[in-house]
Design brief:
The chain has 307 residues and is an alpha/beta fold. The strands form 3 sheets. The protein has an 8-stranded mixed beta sheet, with helices on both faces. The structure holds NADP nicotinamide-adenine-dinucleotide phosphate (NAP).
Length: 307
């Protein structure tokens, strides 16, 4: 079956459709949050196309249980189809241990998919002196992906899950003077800020990768009913009630854009870009601000160095 042209995909395309004809035999793909929602579907489909999946979960058991459900993976040429790794993104030691475990697998990496996330915690939570969504969604992935870059193949890809909710970030982008949200805590705005940070991180990382052939890009998967709403299920259910059902994706459709960037040839062009509905999207102006991206990188590096 031939690989379908990327121009033919849209918001209804599924992860299976966008990877049709793609062989990932011999490739290794790391996915954070492989046990639920979009991460689980990405693991299933990318495994089906032949990739060896390194899946992380908050505990190794959670990841292993999810990966045990993967379908046959005849293209890998090995009995093992996946490896399960514990990675609690809000615990720097756990993230660093995950990075060390993945180094121990002795496998070059083709894709690092920063997928895991939490959304709109109703009450302000602070850990290591900063707001928990920011620690989990941005800082944890910063430590994780940066720690794995030396394993990334020359044509490797870093795929970062952002969200259309990056539009909910404050006007200035990142509230560097209120990282613990003690001055102001608004659950959705704080989530938006983390998703803005995901775009800025991918943008900065791509610039740092330079002409190496490695790329880093970000994406909005769409609006999908997953476990993401669990922290404020009533508000999330109300949002879904108000939405035009044609704008709500199924999980297979929701996982399409990240699988496209991970597996389809067009993913090689994704560097520094933001995708949605399987096409290049239009993120906010502030998310394209290279000075802000640099400031965020510097802030995160300093913060991580002090942990
Ligand atoms: N669903 C949507 O409509 C939507 C829209 C835009 C963007 N996104 C983005 O898509 C990504 C995937 O979300 P999803 O919808 O698939 O949500 P999901 O079903 O809730 O899956 C999230 C995954 O992240 C893991 N995770 C959460 N906190 C973690 C932590 N501290 N350490 C390690 N892993 C952690 C979860 O593990 P546990 O199961 O153990 O909690 C789970 O595996 C997120 O980055 C989200 O921001 C989703």
């Amino acid at each position: 079956m031939p690989i379908r042209p990327a121009s033919s995909f849209n918001k209804q395309s599924t992860a299976e459709e966008v990877t049709e004809g793609v062989s990932l035999a011999g490739k290794t793909i790391v996915i954070t949050g492989c046990n639920s929602g979009l991460g689980l579907e990405s693991a299933r489909v990318l495994s089906m196309r032949g990739a060896f999946i390194v899946g992380t979960g908050r505990t190794r058991e959670k990841a292993a249980a999810a990966l045990a459900d993967l379908g046959p993976n005849p293209g890998s040429g090995s009995d093992a189809k996946s490896a399960a790794v514990a990675c609690e993104l809000s615990e720097p030691d756990s993230v660093r241990a995950a990075v060390a475990s993945i180094h121990g697998l002795n496998r070059p990496l083709d894709v690092i998919m920063c997928n895991a996330g939490i959304m709109a915690l109703p009450e302000r939570q602070v850990k290591y002196g900063i707001e928990l969504q920011f620690l989990t969604n941005h800082v944890g992935h910063f430590i994780f992906a940066n720690g794995l870059l030396d394993l990334l193949n020359d044509d490797g890809r870093v795929v970062v899950l952002s969200s259309g909710a990056h539009r909910r970030a404050p006007d200035e982008g990142i509230t560097f003077d209120d990282m613990d949200a003690s001055r102001d805590y608004q659950p959705w705005q704080r989530y938006g800020q983390t998703k803005l940070a995901n775009i800025l991180y991918a943008r900065s990382l791509h610039q740092r990768l330079g002409e190496s052939g490695k790329v880093a890009g970000s994406l909005h998967p769409g609006v999908i009913k997953t476990n993401l709403g669990r922290y404020d299920q009533a508000s999330v259910d109300a949002l879904f009630e108000q939405m035009d059902p044609s704008n709500v994706k199924t999980i297979p459709q929701g996982a399409a854009t990240q699988c496209l960037l991970a597996a389809h040839p067009v993913g090689a062009e994704a560097g520094g870009r933001y995708y949605q509905d399987c096409q290049v999207g239009s993120p906010t102006e502030v998310s394209q601000d290279d000075a802000l991206a640099q400031r965020l990188w510097d802030w995160t590096e300093d913060f991580v160095g002090g942990l």
